[in-house]
């Protein structure tokens, strides 16, 4: 899996995002491009804006047991995979606002680098390695950028 913390990969992702327009259509799924960009920002909202309470107890146990490897593992997501309710974006979103927000989150993540994320707590899965954080970041973005043909 590519490493989003590497300069070349980071720039590649930014170029792919930059090639989107408000008219870009999905090759599968229900979201429009503005909703997709907002959806991709939800992970970063939780990290930087702390607007998602940590999952606790039995629910956290189940997430770690059943979902964690799907999210942070090396295997790509399947088309039309089920989306967790807190990640669903169903209202209309402004493409330019969402694009800028996601690009800003990516810039902040890249600037902080792998050392910042190594061992950092995830709201859903507990402490993750730098590789697991990378996989989660890169795989999710790559999946949705592929969804929109870029």
Protein architecture, described:
This protein is mostly helical and 150 residues long. The chain contains five helices and two strands. It has one domain. The chain is 57% helix and 3% strand. A two-stranded antiparallel ribbon has the order 1-2. Strand 1 and strand 2 (126-127) form a beta hairpin. Helix 1 (7-18) runs antiparallel to helix 4 (95-117), helix 2 (33-49) packs parallel to helix 4 (95-117) and helix 4 (95-117) runs antiparallel to helix 5 (130-147). It starts with 6 loop residues before the first helix and ends with a helix. The mean pLDDT is 92.
> Helix and strand string, N-terminal first?
HHHHEEH
Low-confidence stretches: none
Shape: globular
How far is the N terminus from the C terminus? 17 Å
Task: Tell me the layout of helices and strands.
Elements (H helix, E strand, L loop, with lengths): L6 H12 L14 H17 L7 H16 L22 H23 L3 E2 L3 E2 L2 H18 L3
Antiparallel strand pairs: 1-2
Helix pairs in contact: 1-4, 2-4, 4-5
Q: What is the structure about, briefly put?
A:
This protein is mostly helical. The chain has one domain.
Record keyword descriptors for this entry.
2 strands, two-stranded antiparallel ribbon, 150 residues, 3% strand, mainly alpha, single chain
């Amino acid at each position: 899996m590519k490493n989003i913390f590497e300069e070349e990969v980071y720039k590649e992702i930014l170029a792919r995002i930059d090639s989107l327009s408000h008219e870009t259509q999905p090759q599968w799924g229900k979201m429009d491009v503005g909703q997709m960009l907002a959806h991709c920002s939800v992970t970063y909202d939780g990290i930087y804006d702390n607007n998602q309470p940590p999952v606790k107890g039995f629910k956290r146990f189940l997430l770690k047991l059943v979902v964690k490897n799907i999210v942070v593992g090396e295997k790509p997501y399947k088309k039309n995979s089920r989306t967790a309710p807190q990640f669903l974006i169903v209202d209309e979103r402004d493409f330019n606002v969402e694009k800028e927000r996601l690009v800003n989150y990516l810039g902040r993540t890249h600037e902080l680098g792998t050392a910042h994320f190594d061992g950092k707590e995830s709201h859903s899965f507990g402490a993750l390695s730098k590789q697991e954080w990378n996989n989660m970041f890169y795989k999710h973005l790559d999946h949705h950028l592929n969804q929109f043909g870029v």
